[in-house]
Write a structure and sequence with these properties.
Elements lengths: L7 H4 L9 H8 L2 E14 L3 E12 L4 E13 L4 E9 L1
Antiparallel strand pairs: 1-2, 2-3, 3-4
């Protein structure tokens, strides 16, 4: 599940997800497809990483949105995986 790819602090961000998971779910149910067109590693340390990604969202309405994003990742040592901690437009 994509929600579990987010850090706890990102999940708890009230500006992005005022109703928690429901806000997240509601936004994604309007999307029919997402394509990662390019991704580049910017920096990495033992517990953080930054990547730039060019993504294209296709809404169920047919509208397409291309965005250049910078994703800040944090290492989840419990689950041994990277989690998205913040995302900003690049």
């Amino acid at each position: 599940q994509a929600w579990n790819q987010l850090s706890t602090s990102f999940q708890d961000n009230q500006q992005l997800h005022p109703d928690g998971y429901n806000s997240y779910y509601d936004w994604w149910t309007g999307i029919s497809n997402i394509a990662i067109q390019d991704i580049k590693q910017v920096s990495t340390s033992t517990d953080t990483a930054t990547v730039n990604a060019l993504v294209k969202y296709t809404k169920k309405s047919g509208e397409s949105i291309a965005q250049s994003l910078e994703l800040f990742l944090v290492w989840n040592s419990t689950d041994k995986k990277w989690n998205i901690d913040t995302v900003s437009l690049n």
